[in-house]
Amino acid sequence: MSDKTHAGVLSGEFFMQGDIACAEGAICAGCRFFGGYPITPATEVAQWMSERLPVVGGMYIQMEDELASMNAVLGASWAGIKAMTATSGPGFSLMMENLGLGIMMETPCVLVNVQRGGPSTGLPTLVGQGDMMQARWGSHGDYAIIALAPSSPQEIFDLTIDAFNLAERYRTPVLVMTDAEVGHMTEKVVIPPPDEIEIVPRRKPTAPPGEYMPYYVAPGEWVAPMAVAGDGYRIHATGLTHNEKGYPATADDSSQWPLIQRLIDKIEKNRDDIIVLEENGLDDAEVAVISYGIAARTAIWPMQMARAEGIRVGLLRLVTVWPFPDAAIYDLAGRVNGIVVPEINMGQIVREVQRAAAGRTQVISVPHPGGGIHDPYKVLDAIRRAAGRKVEV
Amino acid sequence: MKYWREPLDLKDIRVPHGVIHILKERCKGCGWCIEYCPRDVLAPSDEINTKGYHPPHVVQADACVSCGLCELLCPEFAIYVEETEGEVVLYER
Amino acid sequence: MGIEMQGYRLDKTMEQHEEAEGWVDEIHGTHPMDDLLRTDRLPHIWCPGCGLGTALTCFLSALRKSKFDLDKVVVVSGIGCTGRVAGYVRLDSFHTTHGRAIPFATGLKLGNPALKVVVFSGDGDLVTIGGNHFIHAARRNMDITVICVNNFNYGMTGGQAGATTPVGGVTSTSPYGNYEYPFNVSALAAASGAVYVARWTVLHARRLERSIHEALLKPGFSLVEIISPCPTGFGRRHKQREGLDTLHYYHEHGVIKHGADPRETDIGLSGALVEGKFVDLDKPTFLEQRSRRLAQALEK
Ligand SMILES: Cc1ncc(C[n+]2csc(CCOP(=O)(O)OP(=O)(O)O)c2C)c(N)n1
Ligand code: SF4
Ligand code: SF4
Ligand code: SF4
Ligand SMILES: [Mg+2]
Fold first, then answer.
1. Lesser CB count within 10 Å: N end or C end of chain A?
2. What is the pLDDT of residue C18?
3. Closest CA relative to residue C195, chosen from C109, C289, C61
4. How far is C75 from chain A (nearest CA, A)?
5. Is A92 helix (H, G, I), strand (E, B) or coil?
6. Rg of the Cα trace of chain B?
7. What is the rounded CA–CA span in Å between residue C76 and residue C107?
8. Residues A46, A183: one domain?
9. In whole angstroms, what is the distance from residue B76 CA to residue B9 CA?
10. Residue C187 is inside which H or E element, if any?
11. What is the pTM of this model?
């Protein structure tokens, strides 16, 4: 089960559903383990993986619940395999505790959330973006996280690969926060030949057993090389606060400080490497729309209408939602008359935008409780208001 | 060891003999080794280790048959037996 | 990644670590089991008279006899006093979250089928909070060995009742005596499809060791239930103030019945404590089933 084999890996042009593009992206990225539990609208990822993984020499297992799925993924990663799971709201909630375990043990893996309307069972088949703050803060304790938000099947494919690469580079679980709309959308997806896809391999220790400490981070680096089970290093990994040896160090805060600080900083201080933003028409903009995922895509039409009315509006699309692009938004806030934030929740990321804008401009939320996409005229009205135009009611 | 009749080959029977090692600082004084030694080799001692426990001590060194039970039962990895070579040592219990 | 580092490491070198944490051979001396233990972490945290150390010794002793390549043996624990086992074995070892050792172990095994994966955890961990994973791993005949230390309570958190506490058992959360029906761990495993099920008290250390040895060599889901004293959480509330008192109880109440119907081995606060090997059968494992099925379906 090596991630170097390309046997059975697709390349070419396809007409593909978002969920399936996610699964194929994972396979291209070298993912050879999927542990999951069926849930609408993420089920197709599992179904596709159950069919495809055995063909590419991988392992698929349907676990008994999402607690188990998350743990199986962590276990597989510690066996040296790139691993993934995919779920939606209720399952995402069940994964939270062990997402924290993955973060604490510094376990590379990918968790896909095809968001639906919530809370609770909510709107199983309909779109939502209400898990964005849960993505950031859902597990207990302090940590940092990487979350990507694709807007199309092609981008699900691309970002799933990026997610695996970031997971390896920063030794951490990475979230792909897509939604029912994008997950169930079928569009053209181009899969490049395997040798054109950049894949970050797992960094293994070079020190001999006995000298290697699983959590000793060399100067100038952010994470330790990762020995896995069976490599002969006889490692220990725990969810308890630990020292460089990986041993519990819970008597006081002397290990807690450097460990937690590093877990946060390895992501927050590498924002320039991690964060991807897409700008569209911002150069001359008086109004900026800041959005992500499907909501960014559906903002295009009202933006075009606003442009036709003479409002110079541009889009800042958050391809990376976490870590949050504070600097870019602060900068933008100094250049525009107003920022409009449409999202399919009652106002989550808009709070972050407000925080980052630091009062330099007005920030207008365009909420939606989930179950559908925005009425374009609501977004248009918000753009008009941001531009200081009169809005007829 | 008591036989109901003396075996004809008594001279050839080799009953293993053991030497007991006690890692006093690891002991937590549970007394399991003392209680379950089939040969009453061990007894509580007055000695106190750094943690305040009384480790056992060997009172009948010759009696140990190297059965290894104390080693297996000890929850602290604090006692073990080393089998010695050679001698046939038979004891009345 | 242009970055400047600032103080993430404890300001200790590797040597200072060793000094701070142990390697005090002069004090500890050496024990034949030491090469399998993270001796720099001894003495362990377990109470005097706790059976966990004995359970661990029996496991390590059986493991040594099994002749497995120790670099390919992995121990996975959940949370609890028993869960600390993973931190003491000098093997690849993972200390996961409460109840989740089995799915983590499942991922390890499926990620690298060449590994020998052992789950070593407590009753509360494995059959109370983690009960769902336990029955499903047994149902799948997942290729792992599960060692469940049953002390009839939650030792680590101060002796609360759990799914294994016998009716009438007094714990810190059943002060008037437990009135819930308990799980019989061995019967649960057997009913769920385990191919090997044995139960021993720590007093029967030799037999326990032999059973663990058999379980390790058994392909598929094997379970060894170890009945073990917890004087601190459970014993002292049941006239067994010391671990030794509990061993005496085992001596008086232990009844060895190999092949007993697991359904007839329920454990109460008094009466016979049935021990022995209850199940030993052959059935294709998860991985074997999978290979067969995929070979049929894919290699046409
Ligand atoms: C999700 C979660 N709930 C509760 C706890 C607190 N907790 C820690 S150990 C434990 C019980 C352990 O009992 P058992 O598995 O029987 O182990 P023992 O200590 O008896 O060996 C509990 C409830 C936790 N760590 N995580
Ligand atoms: S090896 Fe056996 S006989 Fe010797 S001291 Fe230990 S328990 Fe007693
Ligand atoms: S069994 Fe071990 S810990 Fe208990 S008294 Fe004997 S040597 Fe000490
Ligand atoms: S609380 Fe009970 S199980 Fe935990 S170490 Fe003490 S005696 Fe053992
Ligand atoms: Mg317990």
1. C
2. 43
3. C289
4. 9
5. helix
6. 15
7. 11
8. yes
9. 40
10. helix C185-192
11. 0.95
Nearest to C223 by CA among C214, C231, C233, C236: C214
Q: What percent of chain B has pLDDT over 90?
A: 70
Antiparallel, parallel or unpaired: β A146-148 and A320-322? antiparallel
A280 vs A14, A284, A373, CA distance in Å?
Answer: 27, 10, 21
Q: Which residues contact B52 (CB under 8 A, 6 or more apart)?
A: none
SS3 C261: coil
Query: Is residue C4 situated within a structural domain?
Result: no
User: How far is the centre of ligand 4, averaged over its atoms, from the C-alpha of C50 (Å)?
Assistant: 5
Domain hosting residue C61, numbered range = 44-299
Instruction: Go through chain A and tell me how many residues it has.
Output: 393
Compute the distance between CA of residue C82 and CA of residue C98 in angstroms, rounded to an integer: 11
Residues A149-160 as b or e (16 or more Cβ within 10 Å = b) = bbbbbbbbbbbb
A59 and A186 inside one domain? yes
CATH code assigned at A40? 3.40.50.970
C-beta neighbour count of A201 within 10 angstroms = 11
Q: What is the phi-psi region of residue A322: left when phi exceeds 0, alpha when psi lies from -120 to 50, beta otherwise?
A: beta
Q: Are residues A378 and A283 in the same domain?
A: yes
Instruction: Tell me which residue of C217, C223, C221 sits closest to C198, measured CA to CA.
Output: C223
Phi-psi region of C135 (alpha: psi -120 to 50; beta: other; left: phi over 0): alpha
Q: Print pLDDT tens along chain C (300 aa).
A: 333 334 444 333 334 434 444 444 444 568 999 999 999 998 899 999 999 999 999 999 999 999 999 999 999 999 999 999 999 999 999 999 999 999 999 999 999 999 999 999 999 999 999 999 999 999 999 999 999 999 999 999 999 999 999 999 999 999 999 999 999 999 999 999 999 999 999 999 999 999 999 999 999 999 999 999 999 999 999 999 999 999 999 999 999 999 999 999 999 999 999 999 999 999 999 999 999 999 999 876
Q: How many residues does chain B have?
A: 93
Q: How many residues does chain C have?
A: 300
- In short, whether C54's Cβ falls inside 6 Å of ligand 1 is no
Q: Residue C15: inside a domain, yes or no? A: no
Give chain A's domain count. Answer: 2
Question: Is there a single domain that holds both residue A39 and residue A181?
Answer: yes
Tell me, what's the pLDDT at C107? 98
Q: Could you say which ligand is closest to the alpha carbon of residue C150?
A: 5
User: Which of chain B's residues have a Cβ under 8 Å away from the Cβ of C235?
Assistant: none
Give the pLDDT score at B11: 62
- Are chains A and C in contact at 3+ CB pairs closer than 8 Å? yes
Residues β-bridged to residue C122: C149
Domain assignment of residue A366, yes or no:
yes
Whether pLDDT at A2 is above 60: no
C199 CB contacts (<8 Å, ≥6 apart)?
C185, C186, C224, C225, C226, C227, C265, C274, C275, C276, C278
A151 and A30 co-located in one domain: yes
CB contact under 8 A, C109 and A73: no
DSSP A260: H
Tokens read off for A22: 């996610």
Domain with A42 in it: 4-196
Task: Identify the CATH number of the domain in which residue C147 sits.
Answer: 3.40.50.970
Strands (E) in C72-201, as ranges, are 73-77, 92-95, 116-122, 145-150, 196-201
Q: How many Cβ atoms are within 10 Å of C161's Cβ, its own excluded?
A: 25
Please identify among residues 12-31 of chain C the ones whose CB lies closer than 8 Å to any CB of chain B: 27-31
Split into its structural domains, chain C has a count of 1
Domain ranges in chain B? 16-87
Instruction: Indicate if ipTM > 0.90.
Output: yes
pLDDT at site B16: 84
- Using CA atoms, how far residue C198 sits from C130, C190, C252, C255, C276, in Å, is 20, 10, 20, 13, 6
Pick the CATH number of B16-87 from 3.30.450.40, 3.30.70.20, 3.30.70.100, 1.10.8.870: 3.30.70.20
Q: Is C261 on the interface with A (CB under 8 A)?
A: no
Residue A119 located in a structural domain: yes
Q: Is residue C17 part of a domain?
A: no
